[in-house]
Structures are given as C-alpha cells and as structure tokens.
C-alpha cells in the first residue's frame, strides 16, 4: 500500500466517524419533530371543540345584544316622551302658576303694608 492509499483509508475512517457522530443528533431531532407533530395534532383536536364553544357564545351574545338594543330604544323613546310631556306641563301649568304666585305675593304685600300704616282715629283730618 502506498501513502495515498493509507491517507484515503484514514480519510474514509474519519468520514465514517463523522457520519456516526452526526447521526445521533439527527435521530434525536427526528424524535423531537415526531413529538412536535403529536403535540400539534393534540392541540388541533382540542381547538375544534373550543372554536365551536366560542362560536356558540358569540351567537348567544349577539342575540342578547339585539334584545338590549330593543330595550335601549324603548328607553330612549320613553325618555323623549317624558321630556316632551314635562315641557308641555311646564308650558301649560307653569305660566298660570307664576301668575298666581305673583298675585298672591301682591295681595300679601298689600295686606302687610296696610297693617303697617297707622289708622286714623274716627275723624277725618282736613
């Protein structure tokens, strides 16, 4: 055997050891990928019922919001009606009440002033 043949054998042996050393991490990586695939499958199987529940919850919430919107519009209409009624009552009753209050104040003032002024005795002065 010549020197080139021996160098070729050494290089082949080193290459075989290198392949053997690299095979171990590659096999471990293959196992990790298998576990990852199984985990993703389990997650997908669990996510399907969860998505169904979320869809049902969103549908139920949407129906409840429709009911709340109906109630809110009724409250809004009622508020507008009460506001209009109070404006009508204020316009109808408010002005006469102010007039009655002013009249009663005038009468009370007149009686109070009449009681403050001294009365003349039975005779009139000329």
From TrEMBL:
What InterPro entries does this protein map onto?
UPF0478
Keywords in alphabetical order = Membrane, Transmembrane, Transmembrane helix
Instruction: Name the source's superkingdom.
Output: Bacteria
Q: Name one Pfam family in it.
A: DUF948
- Which parts of the chain span the membrane according to its record? 6-27
Q: What is the name listed in the Swiss-Prot or TrEMBL entry for this protein?
A: Secreted protein
Source organism per UniProt: Sinomonas atrocyanea
């Amino acid at each position: 055997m010549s020197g080139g043949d021996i160098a070729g054998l050494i290089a082949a042996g080193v290459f075989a050891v290198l392949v053997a050393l690299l095979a171990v991490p590659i096999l471990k990586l293959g196992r990790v990928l298998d576990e990852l695939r199984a985990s993703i499958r389990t997650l997908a199987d669990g996510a399907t019922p969860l998505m169904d529940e979320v869809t049902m919850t969103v549908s139920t919430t949407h129906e409840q919001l429709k009911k709340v919107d109906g109630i809110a519009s009724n409250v809004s209409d009622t508020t507008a009606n009460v506001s209009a009624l109070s404006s009508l009552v204020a316009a109808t009753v408010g002005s006469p009440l102010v007039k009655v209050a002013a009249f009663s104040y005038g009468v009370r003032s007149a009686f109070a002033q009449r009681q403050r002024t001294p009365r003349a005795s039975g005779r009139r002065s000329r």
